Each structure stands twice: as structure tokens, then as C-alpha cells.
Amino acid sequence: MKENDAFLLNSPAAERLYFDYAAGLPVIDWHCHISAKEIAENKRYADLFELMLAGDHYKWRLMRMCGVPERLITGDAEPFDKFRAFASVLPLCVGNPVYEWTHLELRRFFDCELPLSSGAAAEIWRHCNDKMPTPQELLAQTNTECIITTDNAGDDLEYHGIYGVTTVLPGLRVDSDAGAALADADRFARYGCVSADITDLKIAGSLAPELARRGWTMLLHLDPLRNVNSAAFGQIGVNAGFDAMGGGVDITELAKFLDGLYGAGSLPRSIIFSINPNDSPALNALCGAFPQVFQGPAWWFNDTFDGIRAQLKSYAAVNAVGTHPGMVTDSRSFLSYSRHEYFRRIFCDFLAEAAIRGRADFDTLGAIVRCVCYENAKQIIKKEKIKC
Predict the structure, then answer these.
(1) pLDDT tens-digit map of 46-72
(2) How confident is the model over 71-80, as a mean pLDDT?
(3) Which of helix, strand or coil describes residue 165?
(4) Distance CA 348, CA 298 (A)
(5) Cα dihedral across residues 190, 196, 200, 205: positive or negative
(6) In terms of Cα–Cα distance, which of 32, 100, 31 is closest to 325?
(7) CA-CA to 33 of 20 to 30 Å: which in 186, 196, 273, 361?
(8) Residue 2: is its pLDDT beyond 60?
(9) Cα separation values, 131 from 25, 53, 99, Å
(10) Residue 347 near residue 337 (C-beta atoms within 8 A)
(11) Can you list the domains of the chain with their CATH numbers?
């Protein structure tokens, strides 16, 4: 993938929307798994492997799919050997977002235009290791105004704060113990927490009244199949690429859940993610029945060129596209901040079709771009209603 300002922008209208309205906007990443400690300490990475590949299960999955031995993925091989193994399989992955993400990472953060392959691995390794950025440099370069990390009750929050241009806030993650989360909510609030990330409706039901009282946003991540390869999970551990897509959210159950909370005056602003793309039409229709309830952006296996466009199309057809809550990295990698550019380019190309067909004017579309790429997220972190 060569340098091209028109990357993913398939018309002059798309280019105009992106460069005039989207490109210069700050980034607000309201859900991620970035390490606040690494930001606070402005960590110096040893090499390109540590920054690009260590902990990135998206890339690990592709390596396994292409037959790379585990020793060269999470094992005891040398860092360069692992990087070269990744480079050797990346050319097989055209169509997967990792192919485009990786080249965006190389271009934006290392000024490297070479396509990554086994033959180019050594040259790219040397070039990038000479330009290794720190977390604060990466966040400043991407104009990242605020991020919300993912933290469990009892976690150390002392590393959250303001670093250069970026405010780092904690986000309360609740997988099992709702009582512990409630007991720790005041401490999280002191560090600026404005959201809770929940994966179970029963737990969400017990927390929702308190979230509503505090004005926090409830993030519901529904229906992933976690750790489906139990033997590999036992050997390597969690968040290593052994997850899959569930069969779909029970929309009827979810409707009853939201109805009960709304009727009791206890429904917080909510952003609902489903990992199965077939849920989008029904989920968008359901969200529209309740105020300040939104479908989240294309998530996990759907965070692809086609997946993002499909989610946007479903959202726009049933709801008001200008209320879309925008992009999140949901990532552990600092290099993932180039994915906001990826989303913005796809979004502008999607909206440009309305201009080309005479269905909307540029001023209207430009305002939508600003809302979705920045203003709606800003309202989330400031606990205001999404109103664009």
C-alpha cells in the first residue's frame, strides 16, 4: 500500500469531506485498553516488536492462521525473528484490516513507505528502531485529546491524569463483581471516570441505577465467545486471539432489560455493542425506542472496511447518523491510533455518496462529520447529551 492522500476516498466529494472537515479534528478514544502507566512513564520501547507486536492479538491470530509456529508469536524467539515472521505473512492478508492498519502505522509513525514483507523486514526494522516514539509522542502526533482506559475495581488509578495534550481517564470495567464496582465508584469518580464497561445484562441491571445517578455512560459489549480454544487458552492465556463471534444478541431480552430500567427512571445513557453484524438492524431499531441509547461502532471482528460501512449504513437507515458515537480503538496498542484516521476516511467516503447523488449538501454533511468524529465523543466525556 503506497502513500496516497486519496486512500479509501473514492471521489472528490469524499476527499473534500475528509480534508476539509475530518482530518484536523482531535481524537477522543472513549474506550481502549491502553496502559495509563506506560503513558505516565513515557515508556521507551526496546524495538519495533515491543511496540507493534507484543500484545496485539489481531496480528497473532493472522500469524497462526498462516502457519507460523507459536514460538515465533508468543514464544521465546528473538524479537526480530518474530517481526520477520509477521512480515512474511502480511502480504497474504490483503482484505484484512490488519494489512492496512500495519501500513498506516508504518507511514504515520515512522515515515516508512515500504510495503512490509519478509524481504523488506530487515530494512524496515532498522529504519523504525531509529525512530521509536514514546507513548506521549504518539498521542501528541495523533492529536489525541482524551482516552478512557479499562480498569477493574481495585486497580491502581494513580497514573491517570493529563500528559501533554492528552487527558487519560479511567473507565470502570465490570465482568463479575458488581458489589466491588459500586464500592469503588467514588474513587473512580475522583479520577474523572464517566463510564462503565459491562458484558453481562444481569450485572448491568444491578449497576445501571447508580450509573444513571452519576451521569455515567453504560457500555454494553455483548455476545463474544471468549477463549473457545481451551487448550491454547490454558497454555498462552487470555486476550491472545482465541475468541470468536457469538450467534447473536437476544433482542427480546435486551428490549425487556431496557424497558425495565427506563420505566424505573434508572436507564443511563447507553452504548450497545454487538459482535454479530446480523444484529445491527434490530439493535438500531431497539435503540431508537429509548432516549440516549445508541448502537456502538463496528466492533472487533466487524472493525473492517466492509464492517464499518455496513454498520454505518444500518445506523443511518434506522437512526440519525449524526448521533453515531464515533470510533474507538478498543485496543492495547499505541499504534492503533491510526485507526481513527482509517474510520474517518471510510466515514467520509460513505457520506460522500449522499452528496454525489444530490441527497445532501456539503455543509450538512460536514457538520455530521464533525459530530461523529469529535463532538459526540466530547459530549460523552463531559457527560452531556449527544445532540448533534
Answers:
(1) 999 999 999 899 999 999 999 999 999
(2) 98
(3) coil
(4) 16
(5) positive
(6) 31
(7) 186
(8) no
(9) 25, 16, 21
(10) no
(11) 45-129 (1.10.2020.10), 135-381 (3.20.20.140)
